[in-house]
């Protein structure tokens, strides 16, 4: 009986030793610093290559108050919760982009039909609203494109991975914006060509609601040193404008 108990004790001790050795190995694994940008703020999260992406989301949740289920992390594509940091090829100093919908956004989505915002609530930076100027009005008067996504006032949603289509540019041509945040790139596509522009090279972004078209805004991206280089697009759904501005400024 004593011999049997001793054998069992040895097995338990062996398992405990194995677990302790594993924990010790993990604790000795070097940590890397991951920079996560969210809007105009950034956070540095220390993790190991063995940590999962969901661990990164949990750490961000503690810092931002945004639940992991409402987070989308981008680094050379959308990161999956069950990926390890090493599998995602995230290294020390890597920059990860975080996009998220807050609980307030979801509440707004449910109540927006009864509590819509209005362009009349907007404080214009100019004495005259941009949409009333001749150069812009002639495009806006063409009317909202039939394939424009429904615009919603008072709601802020992440930019869809497919981009934002159903827009018009300053020539009245159909335009689509695709933000490849992990590549620091904005793709502006028309029927004729696609321009790939580094987000970091955009000097300024202007956004104003279009009077008479609730739920839609016009946006200008300054691509060069002067305002004459601004690329204008019209009928951008309001629910995406905040995240578009944040993506360019991050």
From TrEMBL:
Q: Name one GO molecular function term.
A: RNA binding
**One Pfam family it belongs to:** PH_UBFD1_C
Q: Which residues form the Ubiquitin-like domain?
A: 30-99
Q: Which residues cross the membrane?
A: none
- Its domain of life reads Eukaryota
Q: From the Swiss-Prot or TrEMBL record, give the protein name.
A: Ubiquitin-like domain-containing protein
- Organism, by scientific name, is Batrachochytrium dendrobatidis (strain JEL423)
